[in-house]
Amino acid sequence: MTEGYIHSLESLGTVDGPGIRFVVFTQGCPLRCQYCHNPDTWKLKAGTKVSTSTLIKKIIKIKPYLEGAGGGLTISGGEPTMQPEFTLDLLKKAKAENLHTALDTSGFVEIEQFKKFLAYLDLVLIDIKSFNNSIHQELTGVSNQKTLAVIELLEKAKKPYWVRQVIVPQITDQIAEIKKLAKFLSQKKYLEKVELLPYHELGKHKWEKLGLEYKLAAVKPPSPKKMAKLNALFENYRIKIA
């Protein structure tokens, strides 16, 4: 029996992949993103221990709704690759049920480990916190090199993927850096679309509850005008924007 730690479940999710999806939010994350809205997912064993068999039974119960809406299973986090055996086994069980599968990841994972997931994935949602490595390290505590390597792997494996980036004013909203990301992605064949997500403060209270310093307390969400301007940079490269 394969077990792992989860943070929560969403049975009818609509923002973590195509259609309606059963979303498993795993526990544990190696990143420390300054804007993280779920810092309570960081510690692995702070979650609920559950088996993949139990989860797949829950998923099968609503399988007709998922399939009817063009959806499936998304494993998110936290960072699901922190629990590779658990994540891989759940993906295998989902594919055995002919479910569409997606993995939402920061890409901070060893390439050889990530390769093991590929045969059981239909889609990867990959978060590029910043294309600028220095900014990425300041914002998350880790380099973006593994993330970019995963993108190259997905291209080589001909695996469809979406790229997501949170737009944080004065940090990840720099026109020059966004242009570099757009140019980099414009050369990719298996990128389906890009999602620029406006920074929000919804997780601020969790930081306070956990006794953590929220360094972005003075930062406000980006304006619709700024978001439109950044989206246009990708459209100029004929990249689909969500």
From TrEMBL:
GO cellular component, one term: cytoplasm
The UniProt record lists the keyword 4Fe-4S: yes
CC cofactor note: Binds 1 [4Fe-4S] cluster. The cluster is coordinated with 3 cysteines and an exchangeable S-adenosyl-L-methionine.
Catalyzed reaction equations: glycyl-[formate C-acetyltransferase] + reduced [flavodoxin] + S-adenosyl-L-methionine = glycin-2-yl radical-[formate C-acetyltransferase] + semiquinone [flavodoxin] + 5'-deoxyadenosine + L-methionine + H(+)
E.C. number: 1.97.1.4
Compartment(s) of residence: Cytoplasm
Co-factor(s): [4Fe-4S] cluster
Record's keyword terms, sorted: 4Fe-4S, Cytoplasm, Iron, Iron-sulfur, Metal-binding, Oxidoreductase, Pyruvate, S-adenosyl-L-methionine
One Pfam match: Radical_SAM
Signal peptide coordinates: none
Coarse class of the protein's main subcellular location: cytoplasm
MF (Gene Ontology): 4 iron, 4 sulfur cluster binding; [formate-C-acetyltransferase]-activating enzyme activity; metal ion binding
Residue intervals of the Radical SAM core domain: 15-238
InterPro entries, A to Z: Aldolase_TIM, Elp3/MiaA/NifB-like_rSAM, Organic_radical-activating, PFL1_activating, Radical_activat_CS, rSAM, rSAM_sf
Recorded family membership: Belongs to the organic radical-activating enzymes family.
Stated role: Activation of pyruvate formate-lyase under anaerobic conditions by generation of an organic free radical, using S-adenosylmethionine and reduced flavodoxin as cosubstrates to produce 5'-deoxy-adenosine.
Protein name in UniProt: Pyruvate formate-lyase-activating enzyme
Origin species: Halanaerobium praevalens (strain ATCC 33744 / DSM 2228 / GSL)
Lineage of producing organism: Bacteria, Bacillati, Bacillota, Clostridia, Halanaerobiales
